[in-house]
Amino acid sequence: MAAGYLSHLAGNTIEVRSAGSAPVDSINAVVVEAMLEEGIDISDQKPKILTTDAIQASDVVITMGCGDACPLFPGKRYLDWKLDNPAGEGLDAVRTIRRKIRQRIEVLLLNFGLRADGT
Fold this sequence. Notes:
By secondary structure, this protein is mostly helical. The protein is 37% helix and 7% strand.
């Protein structure tokens, strides 16, 4: 959801990478449905494993509780977002998680001097 929002709201101003320390085989169908409600289609995305190369190529790394599984590199900005996991949750719970993610993405964009319309 975070990568979907960031890509949608920042447009071409930010290169977005999304990966996890223990990715599942496919994206949660309820998450896809919740994002479609926002006009964001993430159904073509595939979960990917977090690699050292991806972190080294990034300026900001947003983690969601991966702990020691996420390598740390000097000079990178790390943000750890404590959020509920949408796995096994219904649409109402996923909407709540979605709202919290959008709020954090909007603040992140403001911190980089960007508005949520990519300008």
